[in-house]
């Protein structure tokens, strides 16, 4: 019996599907496939499904966590991409967290919260 999991994908809600697809493209994600209400979004080996779904309060309570090699490099990328000005989204400053990660927050146009992080050695974690 082989019970190996191959992959897990989240269905990320989008109140304005076209706007959200363009937001992720502007961040450097690829969309190799889409329909009228669903898109396969990826960057490298990571991916998720973007869905045209707008239930009140859902997107504002939805969170994604993306583990990267360097959160500071990603923060610089987000800031230089122009998405903050173009889409009016909020982005936080990188910081070291007590759970041994350095991360920053990014909200997409629908209000989905992304935490973009890299691992820290335990001795460098904030107290």
The level of helicity is: 10-25%
Shape: globular
Identify the CATH homologous superfamily.
2,3-Dihydroxybiphenyl 1,2-Dioxygenase, domain 1
Query: What series of H and E elements makes up the topology?
Result: EHEEEEHHEEE
Widest beta sheet: strand line-up: 1-4-3-2
**Level-2 CATH architecture:** Roll
| Total count of domains | 1
Number of helices: 3
Structure keywords:
127 residues, alpha/beta, 4-stranded mixed sheet, globular
Can you offer a commentary on this structure?
- The protein has 127 residues and is an alpha/beta fold.
- The chain has one domain: 2,3-Dihydroxybiphenyl 1,2-Dioxygenase, domain 1.
- Helices cover 20% and strands 35% of the residues.
- The chain has helices at 17-26, 71-81, 83-87, and strands spanning 11-14, 30-34, 38-43, 46-52, 63-67, 95-97, 101-107, 113-119.
- The strands form 2 sheets. It has a 4-stranded mixed sheet with strand order 1-4-3-2.
- The radius of gyration is 15 Å and the shape is globular.
- 20% of the residues are buried.
């Amino acid at each position: 019996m082989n019970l190996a999991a191959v992959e897990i994908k989240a269905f990320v809600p989008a109140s304005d599907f076209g706007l959200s697809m363009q937001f992720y493209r502007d961040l450097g994600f690829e969309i190799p496939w889409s329909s009228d209400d669903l898109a396969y979004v990826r960057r490298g080996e990571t991916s998720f499904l973007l869905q045209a779904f707008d239930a009140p309060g859902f997107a504002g309570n939805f969170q994604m966590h993306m583990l990267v090699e360097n959160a500071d490099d990603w923060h610089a990328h987000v800031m230089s991409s122009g998405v903050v000005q173009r889409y009016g989204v909020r982005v936080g400053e990188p910081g070291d967290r007590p759970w041994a990660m350095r991360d920053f927050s990014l909200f997409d146009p629908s209000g989905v919260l992304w935490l973009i992080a890299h691992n820290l050695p335990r001795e460098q974690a904030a107290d």
